[in-house]
Amino acid sequence: MKIRKRNLRSINNLSPFKLIALFYLFAVTVSSLLLAMPVAHQPGVELSFIDILFTAVSAVSVTGLSVITVADTFSTTGIILLAFVLQLGGIGVMSIGTAIWMLLGKKIGLKERRLIMTDQNQTSFQGVVRLIRQIIGVVLLIEFVGFVTLGTYFLQYYPPEEAYLHGFFGTISAMTNGGFDITGASLIPYKDDYFVQFINMLLIVAGAIGFPVLIEVKEYLFKNTTPGENKRFSLFAKLTSFTFLMLVIFGMVMIIFFEFNHFFADKNWHEILFYALFQSVTTRSGGLATMDVGQLTEQTKLFLSSLMFIGASPSSVGGGIRTTTFALLVIFMLTYARGQTRVRVFRREIHDDDLIKAVVVTIMAVMICFVAVVALTITEPYTIGDLLFEVTSAFGTVGLSTGITPGLSTFAKFVLMSLMFIGRIGILTFLFTLKQEKKKTGKYHYPKERIIIG
Amino acid sequence: MKIRKRNLRSINNLSPFKLIALFYLFAVTVSSLLLAMPVAHQPGVELSFIDILFTAVSAVSVTGLSVITVADTFSTTGIILLAFVLQLGGIGVMSIGTAIWMLLGKKIGLKERRLIMTDQNQTSFQGVVRLIRQIIGVVLLIEFVGFVTLGTYFLQYYPPEEAYLHGFFGTISAMTNGGFDITGASLIPYKDDYFVQFINMLLIVAGAIGFPVLIEVKEYLFKNTTPGENKRFSLFAKLTSFTFLMLVIFGMVMIIFFEFNHFFADKNWHEILFYALFQSVTTRSGGLATMDVGQLTEQTKLFLSSLMFIGASPSSVGGGIRTTTFALLVIFMLTYARGQTRVRVFRREIHDDDLIKAVVVTIMAVMICFVAVVALTITEPYTIGDLLFEVTSAFGTVGLSTGITPGLSTFAKFVLMSLMFIGRIGILTFLFTLKQEKKKTGKYHYPKERIIIG
Ligand SMILES: [K+]
Ligand SMILES: [K+]
User: Fold this and answer.
1) What percent of chain A is modeled with pLDDT above 70?
2) Residues of A with CB below 8 A from B5's CB?
3) Residue B426: is its pLDDT beyond 60?
4) Residue B123 has pLDDT above 50, yes or no
């Protein structure tokens, strides 16, 4: 298969990919140091090196898998530091990286700009710097609204200082899809409070739907159109939002189907609706939960694993193979099965390069997750279902767990940290950071010869 | 992605694909009737409809998953009928189908010939009929040698009549990769008899390596070369044999690694070698076993599941995604990761069409097997590891089992029968048989637009 020149160029321009990986490692190191400070801990708490590292990786990758209970481990200072780390990770390796280049006065060249480019129609090369400012602005704005709303609302549950701490941490954890909690039991204490759940879902979706979509929505709402100019959403925004919505609805329906005679047996219709909806939304990347995932049936856990494997939108706070990758795969399969020649969606044709990327990402991801599960079965005493759940949760940077995380071996913690790293920076970036040197492209062609498939 | 005209043509020429599926259904019906005859059963044995159907599907697809014990269920007549059904399935839907068209005097048109075409360099359009004769000839020859060798060798274990019955059934079950046994415990009774194991491995490989390879080997060995003519193996033969060999070696090494402190803990080096080698060979498609698979560790079972998912070579008696599909995927990933533009192997370039097929087959297969496992977790009380093993064993038409097959529900039996069907006729054929009508290809192009992947 010819891999077009465009791909080749990005493959050979390694530095930005390496920079992102390096930034990620830098962020993890700084976060580990911050979270290791005695002032960050509750009196008498001592954390092992591996647990601090795991928490830092989980927080920087905004996964939320945790070997510790935040409320029992960290002091208020520690909680605020953790929120800062989530923010660092949430706004993202890409935007933070670009912002740092900006601050350092480094001229943003074509390569770096391409990295955070989302859609050529919507964002010109010139607008990249503006885009980063917009990302940070939009995130802070949403978080401020969330903080005030949740903090004030929580006054009915907690004394003022605690209420606003819960509002502050809860908003950041939801908006960055951090998935950490200071309640000690995720959102289970609010399992009957639909308002808190609703706000949390809004924040999770805002984080997971992808920054480009947020920016486009903002521009759609607030930008004055000059006469003759058409306001339109990009293909990317439409495809990712549609896929996101479909996954949420499909997820909700299947959760209800799988749990109807189990977890939902004694629940009424609005409880079922909110449980299923929240659980479906949170598997995109959120990681907060209103129910104990460990109590769900094997089929629900398997199904949720596949949802977490798909993950969130690109250029969002989430991981996984990404919604767009999944959407392209499905569209590609349907097109092929129908015997049509061109892969289309929303009256646009899809580039071959993008389909190739989608395929490579998916197959690599399946292989990586499979190898991870096999490796974990060697060292861990848990079922394959629970291990697959943990692996896809890490790869999708979701952070849900059936409860086995604190009991994992050091080996397993390193496996999960690697998955969170790969899930967060993305398979393609990961592949490119692995490459050490430019490889020569063969200059002569061999004769072609047919092969039987399937 | 443009799907080339060549694909399009095969997609739109549905009849041959439908014919193969219809032939398969016809073979299953006839086999069910044969196996349902009272004369085929041991005295007093009554089989339910679903168990006869399951046995017929398993035999026609040469899978070997079994809800019954052959020796306890079938009379000598029944065993010979079962061998006949395995032969029918083993020589294959394709060749048998073509042979029937031949016998019926139907002119073999281009479409039908394409179906059993394996390599354009090696087999001309004119040689298709000859190829089928060769396939049947080679199979019968190998089986005759196997029958005489094993039957005579078995004289040390059984009285003459029984020895040759074991030789007869064992040879057919191994050569067709049928996986059924009349010992009641697969090849476990011969776990210390390396000669029997060796002959069985040769037969299994002969069946699973693909008929085109057998024919090429035969021509290589026996054909006189005219001066100036080069004897060479086709790309297909080289790729599939190399992949087959690599999978066997890799499988053996990993099985030793995973079981070293478990099943192999009290075994000496040649026991370990033969157990691991036989187990690795049999997961290609054979289904016979020298050990109780249910005793293996979770990691070995998961790993074997992945080997069974890959399956055997195309145009062989085996199923799965096929060795060539897996090889193309790996080569494609490596090429992409290296940033090279052309996918090559053995000094030949791979066609885009073939890569697209490999990708479609793999992704479809992953989805189908995943959905099957989720479905089975709903109705069956077994672990996900055991269910995945059963599912991949059916899809790869391998027939190994951790021992849960007889305990499965009717629903699960239907799921496994569907998987055996799909695995045997191949995902692409399956896709094409699902299509009801020709779809129009869109005649106008939409503008292209970029999308972010991963
Ligand atoms: K998360
Ligand atoms: K078999």
Assistant:
1) 78
2) 341
3) yes
4) no
Question: Contact B434/A370, CB-based, under 8 Å?
Answer: no
Tell me which H or E stretch contains B370: helix B352-379
Contacts of A124 (CB under 8 A, 6+ apart): none
Q: Is the pLDDT of residue A115 over 60?
A: no
User: Among the ranges A25-39, A233-247, A337-351, which has the highest mean pLDDT value?
Assistant: A25-39
- Cα-trace Rg, chain A: 22
Residue of B nearest to A210 (CA): B452
Six token digits for residue A410 = 């050091």
Q: Over 80: is that where the pLDDT of B297 sits?
A: yes
pLDDT, tens only, A286-298: 888 888 888 899 9
* Neighbouring C-beta atoms of residue A334, cutoff 10 Å: 12
Q: CA–CA separation, B256 vs A355, rounded Å? A: 38
**Over residues B188-211, mean pLDDT:** 89
Between chains, do B449 and A239 touch, taking CB under 8 Å as contact?
no
For residue B396, the CA-to-ligand 2 centroid distance in Å is 8
Say which of A11, A314, A453 has its CB closest to residue B428.
A453
Here the tokens at position A75 are: 């002091």
CA–CA dist A86, A61 (Å, integer): 8
| A383: amino acid identity, one letter | T
Best probe of the B interface among A262, A324, A437, A450, by most B CBs < 10 A, is A450
Which residue of B lies nearest to A333 if distances are taken between CA atoms?
Answer: B360
Interface of B with A in 373-412 (CB under 8 A): 373-375, 377-378, 383-385, 388
Q: What residues 174-193 of chain B have any CB closer than 8 A to a CB of chain A?
A: none
pLDDT of B442: 44
